Amino acid sequence: MATGNGVTNEIKASALDLIGETPIVALDRLYTGPGRILAKCEFMNPGASIKCRSSLHMIRKARESGELKPGAPVLEVTSGNQGCGLAVVCAVLGHPLTVTMSEGNSVQKATHMEALGAKCVRVSQVEGTYGNVTSADMKAVKAKGLRLMDEMETYFVNQCSNETNVEAHYETTGPEIWRQTGHHVDAFVATVGTAGTFTGTSRYLKEKNPKLLSFVVEPSGSQPIKEKEITKPELLKLEYMNGTISVTDEETVKYKNLIGEKEGLYVGYTSGANVAAAVKLLQSGKLPEGAWVVTTLNDSGLKYTPASKD
Q: Tryptophan synthase beta chain-like PALP domain: which residues (predicted)?
């Protein structure tokens, strides 16, 4: 915005204006070819993860529809990053936020949310250990969240079933990638939690380039999407998926470390999985020579203790 004296004013109105428009970096030191890996730096969002995008969009849409009144409380079930993103948005917009999260998720995420004014209710683990949150643990977290919803008048974000989660990435992540790459994207790979990032981004990119291939990244030994079990994320739309790529824990840690050692970026575990999958895809022969694969660096490594991989 230009001021009266002709000087451009680049002051942002709030932290909400820091969400999105993250840069894309070429991981040319980590991977030298054939082809190229381009990574979108989502850890640069104010909540230090890609979940800031959906947090802002879901809250804005709820306010626009009247489901969320000004100043009304917000509730969510989280493994951490969505809670951190919501904490940013709710702090700026003036909504008290309560989240439920497993005690197995990293304490750094709880500290982050609480520093922004959120209330983080830690739920005891059923069978997992710190850094290893199981499906049973997450069911307990969700059950606690639903009990709280019954006890208080609050807006439940419900990220796993909220279609505006997908919409956030269709309207922001996908268009940004398309523009930043100069309309050159051959493939997109991403891990899935809610599947909002994968579905929204893939849908947009495939509309722009029908030949683009999109792959879901799955942990080796646990591939519910490939096997099409009923446990697949509700927001995952199979028509936008060309296949899955399996990545082991060892590969995830290897590439997480390489992103730091070769590219100077300290990121979380899903970022390592994404890059490991991108390397596998480029080496598979499924893409044309010189293909560009885009993925996301989902969050900061500062969100985790060394033993934590949630």
A: 17-298
Phi, psi of 188 (to 5 degrees): -130, 130
* CA nearest to 34, candidates 278, 294, 283, 245: 283
3-state secondary structure of 11: coil
Distance separating alpha carbons of residues 218 and 202, to the nearest angstrom: 16
**Residue 203 CB: number of other CB atoms within 10 A?**
18
Backbone phi, psi, residue 303, to 5°: -80, -5
Q: Is the pLDDT of residue 192 over 70?
A: yes
The C-alpha atoms of residue 168 and residue 19 are separated, in whole angstroms, by 11
Residue 228: how many CB atoms within 10 A of its CB?
10
Q: Tell me the CA distances in angstroms from 150 to 55, 56, 121, 147, one per residue in order.
A: 22, 24, 15, 5
Encode pLDDT of 85-116 as tens digits: 999 999 999 999 999 999 999 999 999 999 99
d(CA 251, CA 276): 6
Note the pTM of the prediction, 2 decimals: 0.92
Whether 262 is catalytic is: no
Is the pLDDT assigned to residue 310 strictly greater than 70? no
Residue partners of 210: CB distance under 8 A and separation at least 6: none
- How far apart (Å, rounded) are the C-alpha atoms in residues 83 and 110? 9
Query: Kind of pairing, strands 36-41 and 24-26?
Result: antiparallel
The catalytic residue among 51, 109, 256, 280 is 51
**Which residues have a Cβ under 8 Å from the Cβ of 217 and sit 6 or more positions away?**
189, 190, 191, 192, 244, 245, 247, 273, 274, 276, 277
DSSP state of 291: -
Q: Both ends of the chain: CA-CA distance in Å?
A: 41
C-alpha to C-alpha distance for 273 and 267, rounded to whole angstroms: 11
Kindly write down the DSSP assignment for every residue of 144-200, as one continuous string.
HHHHHHHHS--EE--TTT-HHHHHHIIIIIHHHHHHHTTS--SEEEEE-SSSHHHHH
